[in-house]
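Action item from last week, closing it out:
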Amino acid sequence: MIFGTVGAEQIDDFRVSLTASGEDVSIEVDGTKERFTIPFSRDEVERALDDSSPNRVSTDPLISFGSTLFTSLFSGQVGRQLWGQFADAEKSNRGLRLRIVSSVERLQHLPWELLFDPSRSDFMSLSGRVALVRTRLEGYSDSQLLPLSRLRILAVEADVTGTLRSREDLNILSAFAAANPNAIDLEVMEQVTPQALRDKLKHGSYDVFHFAGTGEVLSVSKRGGLQQSLRMWGSGSLDPLFDRNELGELLQHAGVRLAVLNACHSDWIARSLAKDIPSAIGLRENVSVDGCLAVCESLYPGLASATPLDLAVTAVRQAIDRRLPGTGQWCKLILYLQRPNGSFFLNPNLAAESSVILQLPKQNKATAKLSRLLNVYQLNLNALERVARSSDVVQDLRSKIDDLKRQLKDLGIEVQ
């Protein structure tokens, strides 16, 4: 099954609900209820997903995690129900939407996107046969969203460290909007501050909110949830962290249907936004700059051609895997979908008539290699500076970063 040939009406929904009573966790599928044992701690998951080094060539640790999670989730009668619905979908040439439904905070760290089917030897969310989404049990609900004739996008960047290359997101979106003038309206904000964003969302109306920058982990709640905020520009007594609950209310007020948080440490913010808007995309843990650019480059062509959102996200994960093979960064893309399906953007008939898919220029291999290396060095430096600001290792890393920036400048890439 190739998702590019099907629409939302040709995708069957397989709903897996996870609930908790005290310390006990249960899984329920279509009336069948079984006990579920959490197979990994948060620390174990974070260590497994944190290895994004360009030298990593094996996905075996991810396969091991994905297989264990798959076996934990789909054993007994629940597993038999999955195989039965899968077989019915394949027989009729349909796809399957695997929907993980839960509001239990201590379960949200589990990498559902990493589910690996041992019998087919593939990751479910990469296979092209399954669209994997998360849904909040208590979240946004609306009876109807009419199809759109144009897609209004508000794109904002906050490259507060000077290393995120967030303006490249804006360049990609600007070029894409220029290539699709009949389908896309784009408004851009650079070096966004919390107050500037508040004013924009209070007085504007948009369908998609795109944030290019970084998130910040603040603490862990008593129920096992992470507290995250988007970091924006600010100075003096102005707090540059934007509260996720306030952001959700503002996005709802502006009519936003999709929030794309193209930023590290933003998956829990996306989860929070799902209370207020139909869909949200976030990235868990650290994701490389190239991974973020792959999200931007591959998501919007799908939306512009009226591909349902859940299917478009499958294509984005595949694009990240092609661009960064062996890193596993594709599984860090988290989609919260509160609607029955992903078709609530452009009218398919209008999109087919007007949409032009922009072929973005491929990055020079030398530039890509230097950029990935710079990103790794910068992440290491950020970690070291928190504990040893003046060590020889820190000074050596700073020198290497400066040298890489000079090399990139010689190739025509300006890095702050």
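Closing note: The first helix runs from residue 42 to 49.
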